[in-house]
Design a protein that fits this description.
This protein is mainly alpha-helical. The chain has one domain. Helix content is 82%, strand content 1%. The protein has 18 helices and 2 strands. Helix 1 crosses helix 2, helix 8 packs parallel to helix 11 and helix 17 packs antiparallel against helix 18.
Length: 494
């Protein structure tokens, strides 16, 4: 039996915009073609699904088929983040906004633990599928799911035990310490579900379940935003309400992913086994996953560490400065997350080509992805420079804070065109199993270049110098990434 989702997509789009169905029909068809249309076929091992997604001959279409859903998922994550800040900002309490900003790195660290098995497993699975080792792919998937669940329970216990020290480590001061503590408590309680949901995103993409990967993200984020409104705007729970909404959103996303795995099992897809009978990891499998996953996780950990350092330096200039930076950074996350989504969505396709020894196709995919990412970043840079203050005014009422936030945003957005190179190179090396090179980019970005950059620029230009560290460092890093890629293409070709 064949079931196509094109009609479902068009109906959903009609609900969203009923007055333009006739005039925009072509747009709807293309949108559904790229993002939602695919055939669900009961074929053993999901062979048709893999072929239709990863063996698309038109490179631009292949990139869109894997990249657009990932970008859509990241976009909903971004919208939820902005909504989180927006609803907290309605309290007109800068200390609450500062608390949410200070807690963000710790939330990223929780997600990074899932990356050990999510990103590591995704890279291994995609390459195994390219080599047509389907049985090993399914076993690896099974191991990664259970490993994330176990790690989530351990993380929950440890973080609740060290809740107060972690709140202080985040950079909280007397003004926002209570709000920071309230936020972290609920985030830690939801840690197992936060980790499972984030791990499923990567694992589902690696086996061609791209729509399901995206829909889980969208579902969790939409529920999060609805609960943000209820808990903050109606019930007045402040930062605790924001954190509880986040945790419950990830709970719902996790339930959705598990239902998808059960459904795939009954369809005969052996790539997503959930049963304990398939839990049979061996030393080589664990080593392969972890060798890629730990550097992948360190990417997020180091990002969190650099953000903690940055937040501590900005905290020197008061809660208002932290609040202004927090909103500017959330807005700057639009091009950042879209670039991350594009590169992460393309990564399984790159790994599949590498495993199947399709070098020329792989290099062309990387080239086009970098060009698309750079063009997208340039558009956002222009938009933020022109509309920085207007965007800041959506979240703030104080004219001084609006002016400061708009200025910060204009500085931060200067690095947006570089993101296409940096994020694609990080995903490229992960997809090829070259974890050390991927980690090198991350260490340079978040430690070796960034932390000294913050210290030096703060010394010379104070707060403005701290904010300017991001575009200065990422411009230098983009040049380094290009050099690394040229060297790698020569070695891979040989």
């Amino acid at each position: 039996m064949v079931f196509t989702l094109r009609n479902v997509a068009n109906n959903l789009l009609f609900i969203i915009d009923p007055f333009h169905k006739t005039t925009c029909n072509r747009t709807y068809v293309l949108f559904s073609e790229f993002i939602l249309s695919y055939n669900i076929k009961k074929i053993k091992g999901g062979k048709e699904n893999m072929t239709s997604v990863f063996e698309e001959k038109n490179l631009s279409k292949a990139i869109m088929r894997v990249g657009l859903p990932a970008m859509l998922g990241q976009l909903t994550t971004l919208i939820y983040n902005i909504a989180d800040t927006f609803f907290v900002s309605l309290t007109k309490e800068p200390a609450m906004i500062a608390a949410v900003t200070l807690c963000a790195p710790i939330l990223l660290i929780i997600m990074s633990i899932a990356c050990i098995f999510g990103m590591g497993g995704s890279s291994v699975i995609a390459r195994l599928l390219g080599e047509e080792k389907r049985e090993e792919s399914g076993t690896t998937m099974n191991f990664c799911v259970y490993a994330i669940g176990i790690a989530g329970i351990i993380t929950l216990a440890l973080e609740l035990a060290f809740l107060q020290p972690l709140a202080k480590l985040s950079g909280a001061d007397a003004d926002n310490a209570a709000y920071t503590y309230d936020y972290l408590k609920w985030i830690f309680i939801g840690a197992p579900f936060i980790m499972l949901a984030n791990g499923f995103v990567h694992l589902f993409r690696s086996v061609g379940l791209i729509k399901e990967s995206t829909m889980g993200l969208v579902l969790g984020n939409v529920i999060n935003m609805v609960l943000d409104y209820v808990f903050i705007a109606i019930l007045g729970w402040g930062t605790a309400g924001a954190a509880l909404a986040t945790a419950l959103g990830f709970v719902c996303a996790t339930i959705y992913y598990i239902i998808c795995m059960i459904r795939e099992k009954y369809k005969g897809n052996q790539l997503v086994p959930l049963t304990l009978k398939r839990f049979s990891p061996n030393a080589a499998m664990v080593r392969n996953v972890i060798s890629i996953g730990i550097p992948g996780a360190l990417i997020t950990v180091l990002m969190s560490v650099s953000n903690i350092v940055l937040n501590n330096y900005i905290s020197i200039y008061g809660s208002d400065a932290v609040a202004s930076y927090g909103i500017a950074y959330k807005l700057d996350m639009v091009p950042i997350l879209l670039s991350v989504g594009l590169s992460q969505g393309v990564a399984p396709l790159v790994g599949y080509c590498y495993g199947g020894n399709e070098r020329k196709r792989m290099f062309n995919i990387v080239k086009y992805t970098i060009l698309y990412g750079g063009f997208m970043g340039a558009i956002f840079t222009a938009a933020f420079i022109l509309l920085g203050k207007q965007l800041a005014a959506m979240f703030l009422q104080n004219d001084v804070l609006i002016e400061q936030t708009g200025y910060f945003l204009k500085i931060l957005c200067l690095s947006a065109p570089m993101l296409g190179v940096i994020n694609m190179m990080t995903s490229y090396f992960q997809a090829l199993g070259k974890a050390i090179k991927s980690l090198t980019i991350t260490v340079l970005r978040n430690a070796i270049l960034f932390i000294p950059g913050v210290i030096i620029l703060n010394y010379f230009w104070k707060l403005n110098g701290v904010i300017a560290a991001q575009p200065v460092v990422e411009t230098a890093l983009a040049i380094i990434c290009i050099i690394m890629y040229i060297q790698d293409t020569n070695s891979v070709s040989n």
